[in-house]
Amino acid sequence: MSLKIRLARAGAKKRPYYRIVVADSKSPRDGRYIEKIGTYDPLLPKGSPERIKLVEERVKHWLGHGAQPTDRVLRFLDVAGISKRDARSNPQKGQPGKKRLEREEAKKAAAEEKAKAEAEAAAAPPPAAEEPAAEPAEPAAEADSAAEAEPA
After folding, report:
1. CATH class as words, domain 3-80
2. Which residue ranges make up each domain of the chain?
3. Which of 44, 73, 79, 89 could pair with 51 as two cysteines, CB 3.0-4.6 Å apart?
4. Is 130 helix (H, G, I), strand (E, B) or coil?
5. E strands within 1-104?
6. If we measure between CA atoms, which residue out of 44, 37, 36 comes closest to residue 17?
7. Mean pLDDT value across residues 48-67
8. Is the pLDDT of residue 137 over 60?
9. Interior/surface letters 107-118, b for 16+ CB within 10 angstroms, e for the rest
10. Which residues contact 116 (CB under 8 A, 6 or more apart)?
11. Which H or E element spans position 104?
């Protein structure tokens, strides 16, 4: 029988509460377990002593009998000083995906093209501004029409 020290979820919807249990690896997550050895309440602040409670002597007993803790439980045991968790290394995790790289390259190319177009526009001499043709004397036409309107 392969033993696991794992979390069994309890609590209401969107209000999680976990029991830290020793169970057969084939039993369901929230199903039958052998012994409850602690609790975990993720809704409490991280510094709270009530957040993670463990019965250390029972944890050591089950570890001695070959129970394998899950990654999350192993983190709790590492914080409590019961077991040592080796740090994992995934150098690919922080790197952007292929599609994001393609979008960034396209954006960079568009920015370079725009800068090139602006540089060409700035380097080219501005076209000579032509003087606008003298506008017809509208005020004179208005004065003539006003003079004609007076004698009548």
Report:
1. alpha beta
2. 3-80
3. 44
4. coil
5. 3-12, 15-24, 35-40, 52-54, 68-69
6. 44
7. 92
8. no
9. eeeeeeeeeeee
10. none
11. helix 98-123
